[in-house]
Amino acid sequence: MIRITMMKLIYIYHSCYAIEAEGFAVIFDYYHDSGNLPREGYVHDKLLRCSKPLYVLASHVHPDHFNREILEWKSSNIIRILSTDILDSDRAKASDGIFLQKGDIWQDERLKIQAMGSTDVGVSYIIYIGNKTIFHAGDLNNWHWKDESTDQEVQEAESAYLAELDGLAAVSDSIDLAMFPIDPHIGSDYMRGAEQFVERIHTRVMAPMHFEPRYDKAAAFAPIAARHNCRLLSVSRKGEEFNDIL
Fold this sequence. Notes:
alpha/beta
């Protein structure tokens, strides 16, 4: 696998981030672009116009994580890595990409991708780029809605989530960059899943997602992350670029 000396992270929207490395780029869970119009922004204006290989990953079929527009992107330099639930739901054809389910591994000379579990449909992803370990959670989180759920529902959600964290830690208990939901729609305990993540998995940098438009609520996790020697990226706008973060 090639050695990486430069890596840039770009926040696109919702749970979509892009990574630009030397010679290739990766897009995670594209919903819509960072501009004001649906097909205007960093993805369309930069990534889809370059000639370098572009890996497009989708963690599951939910429309805020998988936009069928990505199937229209026709270029020989695009490699689509999709969760098998997208195929099973007839939202894509077998010829549209490489389909992974939990436990599957795919790799080429640039990167290695391992599909991990989720507490919703589909998968999460570990991506190995050079000597860096990167994680995109998809919809993996402690989705418990404590303010409106029963105690039993909260406990069941937490148990399922902690079991997935154990499975992730068994594969890699140290992650350089984790893209993870910090979603205030959950209610008063919305940071619990993220805190449990950095407690269980040593995480150098966390990039929040699934929070739009509550940038302030995502940023509130920074001191909790810091207590676990993790740096939370302060995202302030769509299309924001973070250079040399690792």
